[in-house]
Amino acid sequence: MRVWRRVLVRDALLAVLVAAVSLTLFTFWGPGARGVPVEGLRDPDALGVVLVLLACVPVAVRRRWPLTGLCAALVPETALEGLGYGTGLTGAAGLVMLYSVAAYRGLAMALGGLALSLALYATSAAAGAGAPAAWSDHLVVVVALVAVWGVGRSLRLRRAYMEELRDRAARLERARAADRRAAQAEERARIARELHDVVAHHVSVMTVQASAARRVLASDPGLAGEALTAIEETGRMALTEMRNIVGVLRADARAELGPQPGTRDLPALVDQMREAGLATGLAVEGAPGPVPAGVDLAAYRLVQEGLTNALRHAGAGATARVTVRYEPHELDVRVEDDGRGAGDGGDGDGRGHDANPQEGGARAGRGHGLVGIRERVALYGGILSIGPRPGGGFEVRARFPLKDGQ
């Protein structure tokens, strides 16, 4: 409403200006205005002034009712012509209204306004009040009408084009915002998986080592001290990995980020599990070749999660074995153990606390490690199998496709 008030005020001021110009032309430069009579034309008088003013009034509502205003402006202009006053340049109001119809209404209505203006002018010219005008004069008037109409249509098309550009920019901005939110959600999920893998593994190792230290603290303080030292080293490793993971979230762009672990770090992981009390072996089959960084990290996390589950749930005296097989178009990673499980308790059946209940008959629990592994493997088009082994124990295996031998 406030916008319309401002529009009406501007149009009212324009109507006043058009009226002032039209009256000046009609009174001082019209036919017979300087005392020189023109044959066939009436001198300016009060009636003529009223008609000129009536022709200018519709300009005040030119944007709200342009076609109606055009019709209202053409009536007094036609009357001026019919009564023999001769409008001359006093037809400015009609031109303004014709422009307004072309600029603020659709093509059909705009063409109707142009046809109406041309038809009324042709009718007035045919009536021929006063001396007949040359054909060139009529041509000038027709060209002026068409030019004013064309300017109005051009401005309307330009406004429509600019509006379309603004809408497109708004749509692109919304699309970018949606993509940004999706990327942020994906990054949060990735960081959550990484943190879970790091925390679950290292905390599990520290828990087992702390339990062993507590059992031998009284009988063998030296062995308990070694276990506590291992706990300290494991804690430092966990902190280092967590810093590397969450460093990307820090505002300081100079945060030191270390490389992500991969299959090259499996020997150190196996040694760590041995120190924690799980007899673990590592076998590498085939010629190691270049592996994509994402697949390399996913393979490492799979081994880490599989060994962590074996350490927590395989039971005393269990052994684990990690097998990494490099094939021309596939990377095969397997973690298997021969444990019978620690029995029910804790957070459910430990052998399947992270597994899908439909995979190998394992019962689901509350963990998320193997769920995250499943997402990692699926992300790179791999095949994951999780479940108990036929001869006892548990197995986690993933096969990652390598494109073009990589």
From TrEMBL:
CDD domains (alphabetical): HATPase_UhpB-NarQ-NarX-like
Lineage top rank: taxon: Bacteria
Ranges in a coiled coil: 162-195
Record organism: Nonomuraea montanisoli
Catalytic activity: ATP + protein L-histidine = ADP + protein N-phospho-L-histidine
Any Pfam family the entry gives: DUF7134
SUPFAM superfamilies found in the cross-reference section: ATPase domain of HSP90 chaperone/DNA topoisomerase II/histidine kinase (SSF55874)
Keyword Transmembrane: yes
Name of protein: histidine kinase
EC number: 2.7.13.3
